[in-house]
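From the pipeline queue, job 12 of 40. The input is one protein chain; the requested action is below.

Action: predict structure.
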Amino acid sequence: MSELLVEQLIRIFEKANRNFLQSDCELLISKVSERTLCGALMIHLHEIIKGSEFHEYKIDVEYNRNKNGKVKTYVKTITGPNDIFVKINCDLIVHSRGSKIDQDNLIAIEMKKSNRKQEEKDSDRSRLIALTKDSYDGIWPGDGKTLPEHVCRYGLGVFYEIDYKDRVILIEYYKKGNKFKGYEINY
């Protein structure tokens, strides 16, 4: 995963987020559900993506399939504690739905309201760490033909926490299994 790709993905996310805050701020003010907020942000991400070099990628809310959308045995999973497979149902993702083997997954976004339990926030952060790792078993075939058994290699992970009381959004960025940047913005 190149630094250039990560920088491109950050620019895409930040532009979509600016557009979201400018046109849909009333959703934040009215304190709607995370799912509604993700749906609105998805629309802005779609508009930015369709005019970029990533125009073939899709933006989905709570997508839970892998390998070209096949059901059951191909549900997106990661390896959790004690090597137990955990099904992934990320709040918002930008991916190729399995059509681009070399870089299927671009952005994973987990959104939380600040009044949620700390364990829920920590779980989302752990998920972003896992999703942005290059692999789970240290092996990535990179042969252009095979997707990994468990979902990984998101170029960018975004933790998005909304504090309705103080009207602040905390944004944290993850890449290669690590948090590398965080900041707050007022709305």
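Job complete. Residues 3-29 form the longest helix (27 residues).
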